[in-house]
Amino acid sequence: MLILLGTVLMSSAAAAADKPHILFLLSDDHSYPFVGCYGDRNVRTPTLDRLAAEGMKFHRFFTGAPQCVPSRATLMTGRSPVAARMTRFSAPLPRDEVTFPELLRDQAGYATGVCGRTYHLDGTTRQGAAIARVYQQHRLQTFAERVDYLRTGRDTEVAGQVAEFLDQKSAEKPFFLWANFSDPHHAWNAPAEFRPDPASLQLPAHWPDLPGMREQLADYCAEVNRLDRTIGTVLDVLAQRDFLDKTLIVFAGDNGAALPHGKGSLYDPGSNVPLIVRWPGVVQAGGESRALLSGEDLGPTLLAAAGLEPPPRMSGVSFLPLLKGEPYTPRKHIFVERGSHGSAAPVNVNIRSSSYDLGRAVRSDRYKFIYNGTPWIPYSPVDSAGGAAWTQIQAAAAEGKLAPGLQATYFTTPRPVYELYDLDNDPSELNNLSGRPELAAVEQELRETLAEKMILDWDYLPLPAFAEDAVKVKGKPKGRKQPKR
Predict the structure, then answer these.
(1) I need a surface site. Which of 213, 241, 421, 455 has the fewest CB within 10 A?
(2) Torsion of CA 42, 48, 53, 58, to 10 degrees
(3) DSSP per residue over 69-93, as a string?
(4) Residue 12: is its pLDDT beyond 80?
């Protein structure tokens, strides 16, 4: 009997070791490379830098969209926002879209929870009582049924909510907890103690060196710095309960910064976000990767870490082998979609892309192809269009003082339907190469790749047009069939 009991206890311990505790930390509107471990000198992030030093950092992780709601839908479902029917900014996640926390709970016995800043996947009732009645009548707000523990609150409340979750959960169960943070989301209001000197900041080529740009970047960096301290309080909670070195910790941003060229745009700063993974005993300390990773890949990876096979509906691919230092075949492409933001409708004659835009993008190691579905809508940055940076950029454009690349990128109306960028030579994506004969084969391949993704996701946008004279791929012509003669 004692031998049998010992065998059972050993089996339980082995099972627990195979199912790591998982903590997913998600910041809001956080562009790469705004973490110190990536070499960014504008921010001070000792907590995140330590996570990276003790784990692995990723340079090219792209969320599924440059906005909160669709990007979070991708992170939770392992599917694109289009496939998950989450391109309308205020939409609740459809009940038949299964999230990976549900699978961890139902198939692997995890205690699951969500806390902190609103998770954005139960829709919004701010559009009035009639909308709220629809949500209630049809039971469209489903997240309370998808996880065991559900709380929302300010960033200052996250550590307390994490403690409450850990103290309430069964000691026998592994846990998954998704902790959300508002920082560095606009509006930026971090205290002066976190704010760098605007004059000391380094600006990338896609931002003109204007006083307002520096001031707003300083405000943004202050929130990143405050976020780092807040995350430190959460990690303290884990350490106090002896969970810190027994937990797979993932930190990521949901989409890019609410600054020009960022949030809401299909350029890299809109969807390229930090990703750091710390997993003692599994992930080698100090590792880094430049592999292309998609937000679609997070769910399959965490399921695989818990010993589960991702369901066929998930289009993402597990990068668990990469974490373990095992052979790994990287993605050739990542995809990003842009849809509406807020409740503004395109019938408004004064609409700007900050409120409504339809577009798709595909990115390879070197090139990016952008398909603008509503090119007649003028560009405007999401959330910060009324701020000093964009106001001064507009004034500089009116006076002819912007560099040609910036003038063309921000103020060409209508915008080009197609954009193509050589990211090795133009990382700020300011020189549109679409239509160049010497890159015709590259552009065609990316168009075909994007079209395939749109078809498989049942995308509602028309497919990008193809050249009349189809290029030959592996000796076989592709494109329209020639009419019979």
Answers:
(1) 455
(2) -80
(3) HHHHHHHHHSS-TTTTT--STTPBP
(4) no
Listed in sequence order, the residues at least 6 apart from 324 whose beta carbon sits closer than 8 Å to its beta carbon are 282, 283
Residue by residue, what is the 3-state secondary structure of 135-169? Answer: HHHCCCCCHHHHCCEECCCCHHHHHHHHHHHHHHC
Q: Which two tokens stand for residue 417?
A: 């339907």
Indicate the average pLDDT of the chain.
Answer: 92
Domain that holds residue 375: 336-464
Give the Å distances, CA to CA, from 250 to 51, 55, 179, 355, 452: 9, 10, 10, 31, 31
Contact by Cβ (8 Å): 362, 449: yes
The tokens of 228 are what? 């780092």
Decide if 97 is inside a domain.
yes
Per-residue pLDDT tens digits for 213-245: 999 999 999 999 999 999 999 999 999 999 999
CA distance 76 to 296: 8
Nearest Cα to Cα of residue 180 among 231, 109, 106: 231
Residues 182-192: pLDDT tens digits? 999 999 999 99
Residues 169 and 243 in one domain: yes
